[in-house]
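Re: export button greyed out
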Amino acid sequence: MNKILLIGNPNVGKSVIFSRLTGVNVIASNYPGTTVGFTKGILRHAGKRIEVIDVPGTYSLDPSSRAEEVAVQMLDDIKKDKDAIIINVIDATNLERNLHLTLQLIKRRIPMIALLNFWDECKHTGVSINVEKLQQELDVPIFTTCGITGEGIKHLVDSLEQAKVSSLKFKDENIWNEIGHIIDKTQQLSHRHHTLWERLGDASIHPVAGIPIAIIVLALSFYIIRLIGESIIGYVMEPLFDKLWTPVLMKLSALLGGSGFFHDILLGKLINGSIEYVESLGLLSTGLFVPLGMVLPYIISFYLVLSFVEDSGYLPRLGVLIDKVMHKLGIHGLAIIPMLLGIGCNVPGAMATRVLETRRERFIAATLMAIAIPCMAQIAMIFGLVGSYGVGAIAIVFGTLFIVWIILGLIMNSFTKGESPEIFIEIPPYRFPYIPGLIKKVWMRILWFLKEAVPFVIVGVLVVNILYFSGIIQFLGKLSAPLIRGIFGLPEGAVGALIIGFLRKDVAVGMLIPLGLSKSQMIISSVVLTMYFPCIATFAVLLKELGIKDMLKSAGIMLISTVVVGGVLNLIL
Amino acid sequence: MDRISIIDLKKGERAVIVSHHGGRLFERRMSSLGLRSHAVIKKISSQLFHGPVTIQVGNSQVALGHGMARRIYVERINNE
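Workaround output, generated via the alternate export path:
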């Protein structure tokens, strides 16, 4: 055996099992469709290297979404591989529905093991399963596990060789009869009272009570994000930079003679004889302060809150509540997931559009997200810089983007060809997030940000310097003056921010400071910078997800709507 | 017994699914989440203005669009 495919229904805990087997960290959340691509890892056991693949969840082998297609494709691929086995992960609290996939897998005649995951939850959900009998009925080895605590994993790893092709036979059209027959013999349900979580679950999906609950959850989330973010900036990052880093930079500045090419590249221009972290534009000043001092605190607080909400199981319920409104924009309620992930970073947001079934929905969702959802890095900069003009200015920026999101959705819904199907989703039970798991997830996302963002910020700052020194920015400024000055009412220098915005939008927002913009110019440029084009990392993912033709269309929509919205703002502000 | 659609069920009512209207593909798709014929369901909620309907089936909850729910026929189970 050299390959294991982890396959099962969505939200049964495959990703947690995968992490346990391979030590490779993957994002796991409490909603169907967290894993949209596949992840590979290596399990080392008894001197062997076994490749383990975490397959996106699928309810059946007749796929109805892109993520499910990926799953079926992978199953077809390993058919030729004699040394591959399947581990079918089953949610033990939901045996009947999970067995539908299990029986379809059995028909594929690939050696298989079944795992009853969430075994610990069976007790308080009133489910009792006779594992031995189930093993006889299915004729494959069965193990019980609890992915989160790791219980049962070692036993599984020691028993991988027992995987076998089942001798169970049934006709396809009788699959549900067969399942009913197996369930009757192996499972007993006992009555139990509703838990507090379940009552809360019912209230949060209630057509009337659900709406104030949603408003409270969202308002509280934003309040906590702001609170934690500003606290880290004010109490940790700014003191660190001011007290420890500034003296180092000032010494270096004196050493380099206070000005000149290398001085300006490394430290940036001194402003009134001192380093200004946002305006100086040096690699060691702005290049470090923007990602670490201004953006990272918000990344940490955003992902803490998002991960908590994700793991609780609230997001699918929010999706159901706002489904009707989202349909007016040509997408269904679940599209809230790519939108919320996009607030963290547009890259995972673009990938999460795969939870949507049709090409049309994915096109609309991806375009809306790329245009109207600024990422946390950019939001942090807008909070920091536009905030100095008052909360009203921030409200106009986000209010405008929200209106753009709605209007553009309405327009795209009436022009985009294809179908937008109705929502159809399993609502997971509420769970109190498992804190060590949550912290690990936040940590992974922060590391990912540092790896992705810091190099780009530094390259961005370097490019700015080169463009200024060589006079290219001044030249492009003159060239684009009719658009920048004529339509948006911005100074020509703003073209530099638009160029750098392609690399990093947070640096681009920072570049607006030395331009000495008025309040309305600051608002317009923040909106334009969000809308005109995605950053290069998002662009690459969108190109892959949408294909070149749809990406061109999407880019066209972005540019046209930016010109219109920027122009209108310039007229009315 | 009257055949009604899931839409006509009241909140908290239990019923048995008797048939699907919408072809085999529709039936298969519903079945994959457990909404198959003979399954016992309980309506949890439905959103206003013909929004999605949430129902309990087995140990899980499923939300489905109004148009889908309308095409699944059920028979009420009289509560004990």
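Chain A is about 60% helix and 10% strand. The button fix ships in the next patch.
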